[in-house]
Amino acid sequence: MKFGYFDPKNKEYVITNPKTPTSWVNYLGTADYCLIISNNASGYSFYKSPKLGRVTRFRFNSIPMDRPGRYVYIKDEKTKDFWSISWQPVAKSLESFKSICRHGLGYSIFESSYDSITSSLKIFVPIDKPIEIWEVRVKNESNEVKELSLFTYTEFCLWNSMLDMMDFQYILYTCRMGYNHEDEIIDYSIKLWSPYEPKAFFTCTNKKIESFDTDRDVFIGAYNDESRPEAIVQGKCFGSIAIGGNPCAATQVKFSLLPGQEEYIVFILGIGDAYKEGKEYKKLFADKENIQKEFEKVQNYWAERLSKLSCSTPNENMNLMINIWNQYQCHTTFNWSRSASFIEAGGRDGLGFRDSCQDILGVVHSIPQEVRKRLIELLKAQLSEGYAMHHFQPLTWTQGEHNIPPRDRIYSDDHLWLLISVPHYIKETGDFSILDEVVEYADEGSATVFEHLKAALEFSWNHRGKHGLLLGLAADWNDCINLRNGGESTWSTQLYFKALTEFIELCEYLGKTEDAEKYKQYRDEIRKALEEYTWDGEWFVRGYLASGKKLGSKESEQTKIFLNSQSWSVFSGAFVDEKGKTAMDSVKKYLATEHGCVKNWPAYVDYIIEVGAVTSFPPGLKENAAIFCHANTWVIIAEAILGRGEYAFEYYMSFLPANKNDIAEIYTAEPYVYSQFITGKEHPYYFGRARNPWLTGTATWAFTAATQYILGVRPHYKGLIIDPCIPSGWDGFEFERVFRGRKLSIKVSNPDHISKGVKKISVNGKEIVGNLIPVEMLDEENVVEVVMGK
């Protein structure tokens, strides 16, 4: 069942049925101010921090769902009938009410038609101003004059989102609402023991405000809700001023419309004092041209970011995701990490270390300067011993004054992601200078970035178990597996193998022979331990529990095989051989489904305290045999490395969101962005249902898997590698790429219909040897012709 469609020309997803299975949202905002808005205009905004800078409220996991939000109501003064431009919250019958939502890049538009009135609401956030702009258009399509009132409503959060949800005895007595009568601006302020205490305001820029309310309970009325506010029923706001209580911004504007006439009205909600910034913004955006200029800046912002890479393949859904929505999601995860969505309530503020290290992979080609800054922030969260803080807040950064994690909260993988992210940044940009930059550690002291990387490698080397594998410590990437007290992680060891390989390659390029030889010895020992202790006959075990029992083995109780230790056996480079192929064959045999590969099989049924929290989930959910989309991306990469293009593409398509558009009633989540997981085959009811969309490492790794391993265009220290691994049925594809300031137009042809292998590459008419295009031979614009063949 479809609820909408892709509009590639306008880079929009158009929702035609507002009764989507879940809230289908969009992220607006690019810097300090972020607004998350659903297809029914619900959602919330925050300023800098979703935890300490929450501007407006949203009630998570509530009934009715999708409340509250940014609502614009229209009331016919003659008939007394009223509705909202977005279908919710009034929710008129869809037989008479026509509704469309257009989620675009940096904006959302709501369009409706009811009782001969057409209307639209466009909301966007300027790229460099902490405000949101609501553009409203109302047109009379009837043959008679319409006397109308327009009401707006949004509910303020009392700034600290956690207190706002939990500490009512305190928080409900802190707001100080006011009204700038001269300029007709609602004034919102609150005093908390918080580093963020700015004011906020709400106003109409181009029409007289007829009436207003700042007290939610007065505007809504006792035992009412947003679908039937008392003020709208009565036809006028009450002029309430909330001093304590639940603050809101509600206004009324009145106007008449002749037949065929349209009214244009603008509202702004923003950060600042109603008597200063509010007044200045109201004056600025009373001019329609200034609003249009701000919107054009938003459009140009996203056009610039998406212009650095695009493709044209035989598969339209792949093109849609790579060219538009996957990149858009990558930038969203880079901006907001895992802190704020309709699933993440904003309490875990700041940056997850492993998350942010991975998130840069999807945007470094587009915004290298921002990535460099983020890398320095991450390096500051590494401790001098080499491990990293699992989570930190760069907005309040001071060396030595953080909550340094205790020894039992050190993760075995966090610090190793630096060995993936920093080399990838250098390969993309050619900026080797970052290695010499001196960066302080979180606890004490400082070192060059190169020494930071060595410290990460040394920490892992010094924290190995009795089998020579890395200790799991607090956890590895799968936080729900208990590997404490001497448990060992195959997967972290495979990540370590990959990290060593990356560092050795870097050292060899830099001519640091002594370092390269040292870490080659480390890598040889790690390879030996993996060979001796992790091969289980058909696949690799997931690790060893503290008791010495194998995890993910034929000998194990319940779950026998895990996904990550198979894909990373190949991706790490440790087993690009028959064992790697056999392990990936076992993935196909035991883990693959039409919606992607489950994380483990069979699912845990009984709770096992020694194995950990993974066994607490019902079969098919989250870490217990769900289709963890993040982990599925590594399956694609592994198959591409093995040269099995049919499998790589099959796995890519199996969980591609755009492929779920026609079965949205099963998939339920947005079909334009990746979700964290899809319910697995052992769940009794909801196989194929997606959960936790938007803020997931799936975004950056799906983009990497598709562009660098299926399409095979990936950066190297010396230039650009062209190494496709595609379905043999493809005739070829085209790829546009900006690399170190040079533009490449790449055309790949596949006359022999193979999956992998490059026979010939010419750059601007000059044939090269091999499949690495040296950066020094590139002009400002380049035409690259690639012929696949054996």
UniProtKB/TrEMBL annotation:
One example of a Gene Ontology biological process annotation: carbohydrate metabolic process
GO MF annotation terms: carbohydrate binding; glycosyltransferase activity
Domain Glycoside hydrolase family 65 C-terminal: 714-753
UniProt keyword list: Glycosyltransferase, Transferase
SMART domains named among the record's database cross-references: CBM_X
UniProt entry tagged with the keyword Glycosyltransferase: yes
Ranges of residues in domain Glycosyl hydrolase 94 supersandwich: 11-281
Top-level taxon of origin: Bacteria
Pfam families according to UniProt: GH94_b-supersand, Glyco_hydro_65C, Glyco_hydro_94
InterPro entries in UniProt: 6-hairpin_glycosidase_sf (IPR008928), 6hp_glycosidase-like_sf (IPR012341), Gal_mutarotase_sf_dom (IPR011013), GH65_N (IPR037018), GH94_catalytic (IPR033432), GH94_Enzymes (IPR052047), GH94N_ChBP (IPR037828), Glyco_hydro_65_C (IPR005194)
Domain (Glycosyl hydrolase 94 catalytic): residue spans on this chain: 301-712
Name of the protein this chain belongs to: Glycosyltransferase 36
